[in-house]
Amino acid sequence: MASQTSKVSEYRWLKLSPPQILVIGFAVIILIGALLLMLPVSLAPGNTIAFLDAVFTSTSATCVTGLVVHDTGTFFSAFGQVVLMLLIQVGGLGFMSMATLFALVFRRRISLRERLVLQEAMNQSTMEGIVRLIRSVLIYSLVIEACGALLLTVRWAFDMPLGRAAFFGVFHAVSMFNNAGFDLFGGYRSLTGYADDPVVNIVVMFLIVSGGIGFIVMSDIMDYPRKRKLSLHSKVVLSMTAALIVTGAVVLFIFEFTNPRTLGSLGWGGKIWGALFQSVTPRTAGANTLDMPGLRQASQFFIVILMFIGASPGSTGGGIKTTTFTIMIGAVIAMLRGRNDIVLFRYRLAQERVFKALTITLLALLLIVAVSMVLSTTEEEPFLNLLFETTSAFATVGLSLGVTPDLSVVGKILICLTMFAGRLGVLTLAYALGPKKGKELYRYPEGKMIIG
Q: Which chain regions cross the lipid bilayer (predicted)?
């Protein structure tokens, strides 16, 4: 009887599509994390946490967001902070990537089913070389995190005992590489104490960008000395990432130059580091060296746009992704020039790519607008603050204008669901929840409409 039950459950598991497996897997990890965070050993002495707050914090960590209802540095014990760090690591690399790590360690064969799920998790169009890619991802990630942890430990050893500096170094290296934005400095301060510190700025920005460009691009860069060329995907990601960082830094530098609450109180070096860091961190990282509520409204809205674009495909970040944004810009340029094709680096993009980019952008906009409108009726906050918080949740950024700790029950649930949708991707979630579509056996006649 037991073997029969086992066969039935295995059959049900096999019937699940890769998107459904990803949704269920992340949900299970979030629940386990919430239960661990509710243990007394996870909390600082005298603290208690409600189940909803534990779920919210676990969701934020697993979805590598960084929005918090309790201050991470003071509310949780060292054990609780380690739990959060592990959730960030598993959530950033993906639970299937971590499962593959254990399979490789124990020399277990990766099944076809598992390869399909990995393909979906890494947003790949083919299974070819997927296990090799995962192996490279794990190696690159651990090496970069280790280097970042070492450099941050050395820097912070000047400010705190060596043991604490080492723990801070490891935690923040994992958090920043996985674009999570959790910090241990207490008082919801993030990295504001290091606004003009070149070492902390350079190391943290490198970790953020490394985690945000995507593992495919990272692998491409590592293979460049041997292949002497980059793929179209890598060229688009690197060029758009650089353009967004430079543009963002210039715009924020201009908007905040005279603001006494942000760049206005810093010297020239601090102004440059502050503008540059705040341009990098909306790429779904969530750390900040400037006071977010102190930014001018123009800067806050501009950061909303940067957060909406987000990181790159196959990375630890969220948003609609840099490639999607590039395709949308390319479509506009092609239309204005009267061309039928979008051409990037002398390659023509298939129409299916354009449809997918348009679908992702519209679904993301609809989700953010809908959640922001509902929050505007349940929360007593200015609309821009709610839009900022919602976009931050969807793009798994973690930047906040101070709204999250005071959210109502409905608000916390909505932001939780938004983080979950943002981490998995709106298309993956739609595929997981929607019915399977059969192949179209016919096409309707072409119709004509007037547009514009």
A: 20-39, 82-106, 137-158, 199-224, 236-255, 301-334, 354-375, 409-433
pLDDT 10s digits, 358-372: 988 999 999 999 999
* Residue-averaged pLDDT of the chain: 84
Residue matched to tokens 């595929």? 431
- The whole-angstrom separation of Cα 167 and Cα 80 is 13
CB 200 within 8 A of CB 167: no
pLDDT tens-digit map of 74-113: 999 999 999 999 999 888 876 455 555 545 544 555 555 5
279-302 in b/e burial notation, b at 16+ Cβ within 10 A? bbbbbbbbbbbbbbebbeeebbeb
Degrees, nearest 5: CA angle 435-95-322: 75
The residues with which 76 forms a beta bridge, in sequence order, are: 43
Determine contact, residues 222/309, Cβ cutoff 8 Å: no
61, 65, 86 from 416: Cα distances, Å: 11, 10, 19
CA dist 309 and 178 (Å) reads 17
